[in-house]
Amino acid sequence: ELLSMNAVVGITNGMFSLHNFGLTTAFGGFGPFLKSGFEVGDTSSSVGYLSYSPSASDVKGKIEELSTLLMAGRLSEENMQVIFDAYTSFNATNGTEVADRVMMKLLTSTPEFHSSNTL
Length: 119
Fold this sequence. Notes:
The structure is a single chain. It contains four helices and no strands. Helix 2 packs across helix 3 and helix 3 runs antiparallel to helix 4. The model has no long low-confidence stretch (mean pLDDT 88).
């Protein structure tokens, strides 16, 4: 069996932990154990972290750029709209840093991210 529910939940937890804490064991992360007690956005105790910043300044441009890099531009219009709406909402209530993190979590949760077929 290639994908069990445990595998799906594990990869999702690992990706979300990577976005929140960097490469650590926090909340099912992929990295080594370095300490206990984590705060979202604090990557000081991680082995590595994601630091890419899109060159686009508008939300649609950010989503399109990351779609090209992570999914060869295969992100559907529907998923792009969902991510755009979520980004706009989180940016208004929590700021750009949180909105960027939510955008990355949603991008890595899409079917397009988990497949390589171009059809």
